[in-house]
Amino acid sequence: MQDQSERAREEALLSGSIAEAKAELRSMSLMKGRPLRSTVVTFGCQMNARDSEKLRGILEAVGFEDTDDEETADFILYNTCTVRENADQHVYGRLGILTGLKKKNPDLIVGLCGCMMQEEHVVQKIRKSYPVVELIFGTHNLFTFPELLARILRERKRVIELWDGTDRIVEHLPVKRKYAFKSGVNIMFGCNNFCSYCIVPYVRGRERSREAEDILEEVRQLSADGVKEIMLLGQNVNSYGKTSGSGMTFPELLRQTARVPGIERVRFMTSHPKDLSDELIDVIASERTICRHFHLPVQSGSTRILAQMNRRYTREAYLELTKKIRAKVPDISLTTDLIVGFPGETEDDFLDTLSLVREVGFDSAFTFLYSRRTGTPAAKRADQVPDDVAHERFDRLLAAVKESSEVMCRRFEGQVMEVLVEEENRMQGYVSGRISQNLTVHFPGTKELIGQIVPVRLKECKGFYYFGEQEGR
User: Fold this and answer.
1) Burial (Cβ within 10 Å: 0-12, 13-18, ≥19) of residue 19
2) Cα separation, 48 vs 371, whole angstroms
3) 453 with 421, same domain?
4) For the chain, what is the domain count?
5) What separation in angstroms does the CA of 324 have from each of 254, 285, 328, 334?
6) Which of 40, 63, 151, 223 has the highest CB neighbour count under 10 A?
7) At residue 1, does pLDDT exceed 70?
8) Is residue 69 part of a domain?
């Protein structure tokens, strides 16, 4: 547990770094004769999205004007993901575009941070092939961004600072939220599971839990600021508390979060099947504020492959778990992650995955082709599945997931459900939002409804989403 003097020292250092960067930016703005603009582009998961809100908050505290337009930005920061190879390639492709922007605006500063930057071979490639990138830092030292920003503004020399790991959790970073009415809240960082295909423990580090009171105080402040929906975030939320001194378990933290006055919805992401407790299921069943959506990644329906993935549960245990959840929370929406083409996967293994999808009845699933990540045990295996075989199986899996989703999602057709309105739809005169089960609903409405929870009759199911009509209008 961090003592108060250490916390005060960190807050003073953070404040000093922000003030220094602010002074440097003010000088640059005077020279330019206008305010300077910044943008943060996010790749990857909800954890990255929450990190980006902190990065945007720091940039705003320093004095940058926020923009989503890279072409007019003076500082561009890419917050990267490296879970799959296509995420890496997407970043490299975007850097090529930024090289052209740099020619138009020689004063443009480009930075990279996030998970990709924790891989040594990636950083070496960027050092050598992408001179447009002037600032690089990783997942472990995000809180040093104000200090690094001050250096790059002052010196205009390439700054690269990467840490191999950290046990530090720095509270009270500035945050600029994307939505006024909902927010993610980190409850822990890192992962101890070491699934054989996954790079996350190597780039995010080992598990570190925040103190429960820090989390609950953040939730209370968000509620006071008008936030209605909270999503508790961790690589495996079930492990929460094992590295903190509070003694609080995740189910109890979830219960207390759900009871914070003003908070109308609570979600969480992600739960690992290996240590999902009966207590957690009971809390979800008993607290109506907790959303009826459970994302429970299975990855494969084959017990043999699950063992080689180091998932530490069997097909049978997963099926029993989903039955238990549905028995206690009948209106639950179950979603999952599935990987096709893991090394050594046979046709029989894949058929086990297809049959599991049909037996569980998922509302939706994130489906992925296995991506070989340097440094993971699975990447070293000689029995990689041929691309053509993996792609053919992937297409069959998509068809099975689509069939399951259409059946499961249709069960709410005709019902009146509470919808948190999130945005205007591309269709003129329509807005879009989500029900507790995390399914999207489009219905006639105006932007004044954004941020409100309204009753909507779900008139027509379209597979993964609904068209509806606001009740009582």
Assistant:
1) middle
2) 19
3) yes
4) 3
5) 19, 11, 6, 12
6) 40
7) no
8) yes
Strand (E) or helix (H) holding 444: strand 440-444
CATH of the domain at 466: 2.40.50.140
- The structure tokens listed for 438 are 């995390």
Q: Are residues 61 and 120 in the same domain?
A: yes
Instruction: Give DSSP secondary structure letters for 67-115.
Output: -S-GGG-SEEEEEE--SSHHHHHHHHHHHHHHHHHHHH-TT-EEEEEEG
Pairwise CA distance, residues 406 & 408, whole Å: 6
Q: How many CA atoms lie within 13 A of 113 on its CB side?
A: 29
Q: What is the DSSP letter of 168?
A: -
Element holding 222 (H helix, E strand): helix 212-224
Q: Are 207 and 243 in contact (CB under 8 A)?
A: yes
Those residues whose C-beta lies under 8 Å from the C-beta of residue 133, and which sit 6 or more positions away, are 95, 110, 111, 112, 126, 158
- Whether residue 171 lies inside any domain: the answer is no
Domain with 147, as residue range(s), is 4-161
Cα distance between residue 410 and residue 414, in whole Å: 9
pTM of structure? 0.93
Q: Among 382, 411, 440, where does a domain finish?
A: 411
Between the alpha carbon of residue 288 and those of residues 55, 277, 329, the distances in Å are 33, 19, 11
Tens-digit pLDDT profile for residues 278-318: 999 999 999 999 999 999 999 999 999 999 999 999 999 99
Cα–Cα distance measured from residue 210 to residue 232, given in angstroms and rounded to the nearest whole number: 12
User: Strands 453-461, 416-424: parallel, antiparallel or unpaired by DSSP?
Assistant: antiparallel
CB within 8 A of 33, min separation 6: which ones? none
- Percent helix, percent strand, percent coil in the chain, to nearest 5: 45, 20, 35
Gyration radius (Cα) of the chain, Å: 23
Residue 138 domain-assigned (yes or no): yes
Q: How far apart (Å, rounded) are the C-alpha atoms in residues 132 and 324?
A: 53
Q: What is the DSSP letter of 290?
A: B
Instruction: Determine the distance from the C-alpha atom of residue 53 to the mean position of all C-alpha atoms in its chain, rounded to a whole number.
Output: 12
Residues 305, 421 within the same domain? no
Query: Which CA distances in Å does 55 have to 135, 138, 346, 469?
Result: 14, 12, 44, 38
**Structural contact between residues 248 and 260, judged by C-beta atoms closer than 8 angstroms:** no
Please tell me the number of Cα atoms within 13 Å of 326 on its side-chain side: 15
Please answer whether residues 274 and 251 qualify as being in contact, where contact means their C-beta atoms are separated by less than 8 angstroms: no
The 10s digit of each residue's pLDDT in 403-453 is 999 999 899 999 999 999 999 999 999 999 999 999 999 999 999 999 999
Residues 369 and 441 in one domain: no
The one-letter amino acid code at 9 reads R
Angle CA 190–194–197, to nearest 5: 115
